[in-house]
Amino acid sequence: MTGRERALVAGLVLALALLAWHVRTYFHLNDDAFISFRYARNFAEGHGLVFNPGYEWVEGYTNFLWVLVLAALHFVSVPLQVGAPALSIAATVALWALVVRHAWSHSRPRGLAWLALMPPLWLATNRSFAVWATSGLETRLFELLVVAAVLRLVTEVRAALGESRTARPLAGILFGAAALTRPDGMLMGAGALGVAALFLARRGKLQAAAFWSGAGSFAVIVAAHFFYRRVYYGAWLPNTYYAKVGASRWDLGLAYHAAFLLEYAAWLWIPGIVAAVRWHWRRGSAYFPAIVAAVLIPHALYVAKIGGDHFEYRPQDLAFPFAFLLLGQGTAELFRSRGRSMGAGLYAAAILAAGWFLPWQSHQQAPDRYLNGFPGRSASAAEAVGFLAPDRSWLTRLPGLREVAEAHRALVFETTAHLVGVRQEEHRQFLEKVLPEARRLAGLVADGTLPRDTHLATSCIGAIGWYSDLRIFDRHGLTDAGVARSERTDPRGLIAHEKRATIQDGRERGIDFWAFDPVHSLWKRDDPAFQTLVRIANDRGIPAYAADVGDGWSLLGILPFGPERAAARFPRLEFRPTAPPDAEREPAPDLRPGG
Predict the structure, then answer these.
(1) Three-state helix/strand/coil letters over 440-498
(2) Which residues pair with 514 in a beta bridge?
(3) Which of the residues 73, 82, 471, 486 has an alpha carbon 20 to 30 A from that of 255?
């Protein structure tokens, strides 16, 4: 190994260490991950892929392969709260290594060999890449499969063109695995395989047997999953599709994409990516950027149509590995001439610094307490008033950059006001806030205060469902096909929270206890929020009831079948009305933001 190569290896080791620090900084578990955990546990314990064993048989998850992997972990007694993030971190390192390998092979021009370090270094310093290295969700496994599939497909196209040795058609299988991990993989696999076939056909190199071997394996995997779903759940599409996907919201979706592009300074990528595309075009390898475009662009349009995603830039996170590989190649092309290493270094450093600044500022300025939909839905809170304001940094006070910062800030407020792009810090704080209640509910079940078959209606079913193991009715329809397929929509326009059950739905399904708050059914009686909810119930004439469960805690909710039925179902609890109702009125199931 030459001295230059040893220096590159040392740089990669440092970049990996930086990635480890970054992942640790943003380590978190997401409440939604516990939904998959519960499906996995039930499956591993022989109850089937269901949320409520013995009751509703619906597909309230969108990550089939991830749930199966988690079920295998639970089967061998690995705690899922530990195993899930560990798997995601392993997938993160594997994805980072794929980027290193490709950059090492294709981005080391003479005199600028150090550019091979830049794609992995850009990833290591990227907030989004670090955020989705954990969470307990399937995000990073999905990205690993898609990136591996694309790079394998590029290898297969190169082999079909006679530029390398024959490659077995594995890309279709990898795309199929991605489609099993997230439904988005169907769109990405179809687009990538279709563009590759068109490219080879134009060159007269498309071999029917090889194409159908690859595309056929992808189609068989996808079709088998649809057939399984139809047989197992009686539906062609997952229940989550009906519960979460509402009317087209292009305005929100485009704002979500725009906020992402500004936050990570994607405008700086344009010269490098254009140069990379031109370089690939000249050398006859335009299939690489074309396949990448076929994966990213249709998916971005779909995300824009549905109004974005509840989570912080989760759909766009897949763009980083591809964009950074192209940027590494494009930077080499822009500064290939002798003596232009300084220019390449400045450009690479600008991409790194600009992509770091706003994301890190958002972390530094995040509130220390949980605020729902921060900053948009919490705009009146003191922490939101100056959040990401340009005047808080000398850099964003500069002409030009001030306008970028102001536009980005406005977009973040607009999207989070609709629970789009909710940031990592808020999800971490939410779980910390809900865990004590989830564990206390589990204790009430264990000591017999709550019957194990209690049917609880709430709008938050992750950790609460996992720890309590109660039968849960999700008021947004995730565990109920009827609510998911209803035409009712939330007038507040909250993305993925548009379907809302009514008390009548609860009566029809035999609900024992309807939590008055969207999230919490248990409250400390001296909590000001508890007093506020009691006042809301009284002011609106809603027949709410509270029951002391010990240690200063109370259950607060609505009894769909009245106090007499509740007394029979909960003999160890005494439900008292918060105030005599002044009118018979259909109570609103969710009375605060975030329901």
Answers:
(1) HHHHHHHCCCCCCCCEEEECCCCHHHHHHCCEEEECCCCCCHHHHCCCCCCCCCCCCCC
(2) 457, 558
(3) 486
The H-assigned helical ranges of 45-138 are 64-75, 80-106, 118-124, 127-131
Two tokens, residue 14 = 């440092």
pTM, entire model: 0.94
Distance (Å) of CA 47 to CA 34, 65, 288, 483: 17, 18, 45, 23
Lookup: tokens for 527: 């909590």
Token readout for 258 is: 């725009």
What element of type H or E holds 342?
helix 341-364
C-alpha distance across the termini of the chain, in Å: 59
pLDDT digit string (tens) for 379-431?
A: 999 999 999 999 999 999 999 999 999 999 999 999 999 999 999 999 999 99
Q: pLDDT tens digit string along 349-368?
A: 999 999 999 999 999 999 99
> What value, to the nearest 5°, has the Cα angle with vertex 500 and ends 498 and 504?
165
Which residue from 222, 306, 565, 265 is spatially nearest to 395, judged by alpha carbons? 265
CA distance 72 to 360: 36
**Is residue 141 within a helix (H) or strand (E), and if so which, with residue range?**
helix 139-160
Q: Which residues contact 301 (CB under 8 A, 6 or more apart)?
A: none
Sequence-distant (6+) residues with CB within 8 A of 551 are: none
CA dihedral 46, 88, 34, 186 (to 10 degrees): -80
Structure tokens at 166: 């024959």
How far is Cα 155 from Cα 146, in angstroms, rounded to an integer?
14
List C-alpha distances in Å: 250 to 253, 267, 314, 365, 477: 5, 21, 17, 29, 23
Q: Structural domain boundaries of the chain?
A: 425-577
| Residues 475, 465: Cα–Cα separation, whole Å | 13
Contact 315, 299 (CB under 8 A): yes
Q: In whole angstroms, what is the distance from residue 147 CA to residue 547 CA?
A: 53
